Amino acid sequence: MPFDFTNKNVIVFGGTSGINLGIAKSFARAAANLGVASRSQDKVDAAVAALHGEKQALGYSLDVRDFDAVKAAIEHFRNERGTIDVLVSGAAGNFPVPAAGLSPNGFRSVLEIDTLGTFHVMRAAYEHLTKPGASVINISAPQAWIPMPLQIHVCAAKAGVDMITRTLAIEWGREGVRVNSVSPGPIDGTEGMDRLAPTPEAKAASARAVPLGRLGTVDDVADVCLFLASDYARYVSGVVLPADGGWTAGRGFGGLG
User: Fold this and answer.
1) Which residues sit opposite 136 in a β-bridge?
2) Overall pTM surpassing 0.85 (yes/no)
């Protein structure tokens, strides 16, 4: 049965490229009213043009490290649409680098985008969320619980995001707000995958390490978000849900072929 988000209002932070844009498009196909936010005005404009629905998507160019800008965007979206039924926070930074070569500024930058940015989005949105009934989804990563070389900054940042998710699920659950994280595995066609597996050989090796035998797609992740935001997941909160074909469950087995 198709998901139906008619008359539901969804705002996606980081929603102008990659996985997050795919999430926004999936909600748009499910008839939701969309808002998207990211730093690049050009990407915001392109995403708004790509999100077709009964109402034009609203776009916001901002940096999630700027709390006042995040707050202003959320207040505008809420004033224009009336409610915030689904909130997706997916802004992130990543670049492979050994810890010994990572500058303090580089480490701080990723923590500020991922962890502090997630807090900014959550804190600014809280008073505008539909209560009861809102669904909040943070986009995490396997680095939150699996240590990976060249990823010390991301490991620290995403671990913080997951703890934000679990803590807010406890605090906000009393008001009927569900808070979950989705942790994408190796997803083909994304900037992150291109950085971590830059060659066809590296991508093939990544696919072999997935028990389901393939890289994921953006739609694989988006469908999980649709489920978590729907009434089918009405009793699901405080969960960090991998969308990775079993990759984290079989981490280190190296594939079967």
Assistant:
1) 87, 179
2) yes
